[in-house]
Amino acid sequence: ATIADASIQRGQGGETHQIATGKTPVLTTRQGVPVSDDQNSLKIGTRGPTLMEDFHFREKIFHFDHERIPERVVHARGFGAHGFFETYESLADITRADIFQRAGEKTPAFVRFSTVAGNKGSADLARDVRGFAVKLYTQEGNWDIVGNNIPVFFIQDAIKFPDLIHAAKQEPDRGFPQAQTAHDNFWDFISLMPESINMALWIMSDRTIPRSFRFMEGFGVHTFRLINAEGKSTYVKFHWKPKLGMQSVAWNEAVKLNGADPDFHRRDLWDAIQAGDYPEWELGLQLFDDAFADEFEFDILDATKIIPEERVPIRRVGRLVLDRTVDNFFNETEQVAFQTGNIVPGVDFTNDPLLQGRNFSYLDTQLKRLGSPNFNDLPINAPKCPFHTFQQDGHMTLNNPKGRANYEPNSWGPAGGPRETPKGFQTFPAEEAGERRRARGELFADHYSQARQFYISQTEIEQTHIKDAFTFELSKVERPDIRARVVSHLVNVDEDLAGKVADGLGMELPAAAEPARAVMTDLDPS
Ligand code: HEM
């Protein structure tokens, strides 16, 4: 509404009162009581104390006082948009997932892009991994592919996630730096976790300073399963391929942009969609079977490794289009709850120990963050297909079961509420056997080959950027022993790269890092 939509009146103290004229709605309290004066609290006289009975004032301040909810423990800064997924062709031979049954079918989608380590108010162009979380509102329930723009991850086992994130975020005594990668704790952790070296190469590449969300790839990272109607399982890795291709900014551009416009990425996505320039990605599947998994030189359950596209080509099976900005940032982008555990019939997990841990973590953290076990009733989280449960009550209940029966089995016949169906979700009956142990498979142990493969696959200019990024980030690390330990891993990746980084840091080239356990014995900071 413009000022012209209200008639202006002046109060005794000269304050402005904009009076509803019929073109704008009447301002009310949350109880619907029309408000006559939103400029002055209720006082004794004009200079006396404020009265407790001012329910309008109390309600307004009470609500304001409670506006904040905890930011996400990771991926706090994000930006979302609505759109749809369109299936190119039926994949019924591979999966019974409803979304893949009919060519041309469109499924509503919501996507949230994010940085990982920065707080909610941090700058968009930090050197960081980007989250690429997709919620697909299928006709058989919500399916979330909670991915990143990098196909590998830092750690192999979710038990290390709190350590990784503690090391990446601000240091606990000083509360800085905001620049996630450029500090001692982060590189200390990386240097002691050789499994993170492959990821370290990827994050020092230009992929972590994308030009915009529209120019990023996305990856489900883990190996999942697709299950067809006969119960046959096919392993799958999920890829999002941007129609615009991949583009990044240069580091000096990132630094300038962060100062000039910390909202650069959100503004870009908002502006593009508002202008009708809808960004689009194709969903690619890498599909493989047990025979490939057995012959592959890495473990398909190891999230620090890719499966090269040369080995298992990508099949493009649909497109994701973002064509609608949110109506309200908090309602949608903040309150959306993605979960790796949200899968649908036709999709299943594997034993990837990172994925297994994530399946616990998201639900757990979202109860804390959103405050009620009923967060799935928020419109952004609710399925768009019919849903019926016997869950009830709790804070902010909206969808209690109707009628007398709130349990099953029951003998109330058709009035007794929902029933099971044999067509429902069925866990793939994978055989499991073995001792209970805290251990990893032998194939998890090669931390350098894929890092080398990644580095040598880059163009010369991209390799220079990786070298520059390592040199710059490590130059911010105060302790020489941490710098040396990181470079000692780089020696195992590529000696030329290690030599150039050592030169840039003005240090001797250290000996190649020994396997993890040997490195761990030398922890004296002196
Ligand atoms: C949030 C991706 C590993 C715990 C997120 C988000 C993404 C993501 C995209 C943001 C979701 C949003 O936009 O709301 C990934 C990927 C991982 C990974 C690709 C590895 C392949 C982990 C692990 C854990 C974890 C190992 C814990 C064991 C969390 C938590 C949140 C989160 C607690 C905040 C969720 C919320 O508050 O709603 N992750 N993550 N993540 N992730 Fe992960």
Automatic annotation (TrEMBL):
It catalyses: 2 H2O2 = O2 + 2 H2O. GO terms for biological process: hydrogen peroxide catabolic process; response to oxidative stress. Heme binds at residues 72, 112, 161, 358, 362, 369. Residues 28-416 form the Catalase core domain. One of its GO terms (molecular function) is metal ion binding. The keyword Disulfide bond does not apply. It is an enzyme of class 1 (oxidoreductase). Its EC number is 1.11.1.6. Residues 18-42 have a biased composition (Polar residues). Its cofactor is heme. The active site is at residues 75, 148. Residues 1-42 are annotated as: Disordered. GO terms for cellular component: cytosol. Keywords: Heme, Hydrogen peroxide, Iron, Metal-binding, Oxidoreductase, Peroxidase. Decomposes hydrogen peroxide into water and oxygen; serves to protect cells from the toxic effects of hydrogen peroxide. Belongs to the catalase family. HPII subfamily. This is Catalase.
